[in-house]
Every structure is written in C-alpha cells, then in structure tokens.
Amino acid sequence: MRPSLRSRAHFMRGFTLVELLVVIAIIGVLIALLLPAVQQAREAARRSQCKNNLKQIGLALHMYHDTLGSLPPGWIANHPSTNKPYWLGLPGWGWGTRILPFMEQSSVQDNLIDYRLPMLDSFHDTVRTTSIPSFICPSDTGGTTFTLEPGSMPAPNYSVTFTDTTVPKANYIGVFGTVRMVNAGCPTGECLGNGSFVLQKGFRFRDLTDGLSTTFIVGERNSKFSPSTWLGVFAGAAHAPGRIVSVAENPPNSEVSPGFTFSSYHPAGTQFLSGDGSVRLISETIPQATYHALCTRAGGEVAGEY
C-alpha cells in the first residue's frame, strides 16, 4: 500500500529553529576548543624553526672559529680622525656579516659587500635591503626590513649625516654582556663588555672560561620596541650598537628598557644560543643572578637552576 501524502509530509519534516541553534552552538564550542590548539601547534612549529635558525647560526660560528681561530668581532669600527677603535665609527660591519659564507650566503658577501667601505656607501644599496631568512624568527611577523632613524652622536669632534635608512631585519643579536655600554668604556674607545661579542675583538672559545655550555653568545630580540639588523652599527643612527648586540642587564622580556635587552614573541620564553651550539628557552622569571652568570664569558659565576 502506498503511503498517504500526510505520512510523506511527516517523514520529510525539517529541523526546527531551536535544533538549528543548538547545532550552531555546538559547532561554535568545538571551534572555540580547537582554535587554541591550532594556534599552539603553529607557534610550536614557529618556535622549532626559530630554534633551528639559532642552531644554524651556532654551526656557522663554530665553522668560523675553526677557520679563523676565533669568533668574529661584535663589530669593526674606527674613529675617522684617529683611526682607533670607536663604538660609533666606520665602517661598522657586524658579526652577522662575517658568518655569511658559513650559512650558504657566500654570494651575498662576495658580490654585495665591500668591508673597506662604510655601510652607507652607494655600493651597498642592494645589501642594505637584503633579507637573510635564517636571521628572522618566524614568530616575529611583519616586514623583513625596517626604517632606521637618526640618533645622537656623543662625540663633539665627530659627526656624520644620517637620514632614515631602510635596513634588513634580524631577530638574533650577540650578547655584549651584563654591563651597559656607557659603563663598559664604549664612549672612550675600549667598549669591552663582559659578554662574547664586543667592539673590534674576536674571542676564542678558550676565552669563554665559564664554559661553552653555560655561556650564552646569541639571543633573540623581537621587533616591538627596537628592531635589530644583521648588517652592523650605522654611525649616526639611533641606538646603533644595540641593533646587533644587547646588554642582558634585565631578564628577557623585561619592561625595564625593553628596547635594549633580549625578548621574543614566544609565549614560553626567549631562546638563546650557547657557546657549545645548544639552544635553550629561557623564561622571563629566571633569577637575575643566574641570568647574569649565563651572559658573561669569564665571570667565574656558577649558573644555578634555570
């Protein structure tokens, strides 16, 4: 017997409005539960890539050391009048440029850089906008370049003309130490921090007497307050040396002088490269004494738990 029209209408009844709202609410709850997990997975992948970048830098530094007998100088700069080392002098090339051949970037160094010329020389127009992916943390989103603005030059007998200049971004900078540059002899020429990357001097691994595994040599800095570059120190630019090295005066992500310390966009902490090539994630709650012990090359301190 064929079903009646009334029976067919009963079988074909659709969802009610309440049922649809319940389904939508359930889907919304599932998405809300899933989204943080997806974001955490993405951040974990970005942090892993960031760690790999630091490991690559560490490997390059070790190969540089094996080839030339020391780590590269933090930066090389001389006073144009006296030709003596001067933290805001010329040409200003930083440690990051020196390891390019060991990061499969020989063409950049060979074709785009002349270390005898200042970084603002027209010969370097191309390299001043050349981004090196291995120097950028994937968690630090945004452009691969930034505008470096003029700053003050604390030397009455030496001044340069510096205007807004586009430079490549970098998120990995050298550890100058735990003492501010103005207190480490930089204005007078010595500029010898107690870390691993300082003006004009390249340390040997044996100079890191605190131990390679307990000495941080490179760390992260995000671009929120003071973007960094891998090129070097631009004479006349704002916070020029602080663009390639940092002072670990305060713990990572500190709200005190945030533009001059180490920092990251990783929610769990900031990653550091040790002298032995290992990479560690350091929380912003690390004890100050322990952090300082890790950021000096020969302080004789004993690094505690971290």
From TrEMBL:
Task: Tell me where in this chain the DUF1559 domain is found.
Answer: 39-288
Transmembrane ranges?
none
Lineage top rank: taxon: Bacteria
Cross-referenced Gene3D superfamilies: Glycoprotein, Type 4 Pilin
InterPro entries, alphabetized: DUF1559, N_methyl_site, Pilin-like
User: Mind telling me which NCBIfam families this protein's record contains?
Assistant: IV_pilin_GFxxxE
Protein name in the entry: Prepilin-type cleavage/methylation domain-containing protein
* The organism of origin for this protein: Blastopirellula marina
Read off the lineage from the record: Bacteria, Pseudomonadati, Planctomycetota, Planctomycetia, Pirellulales
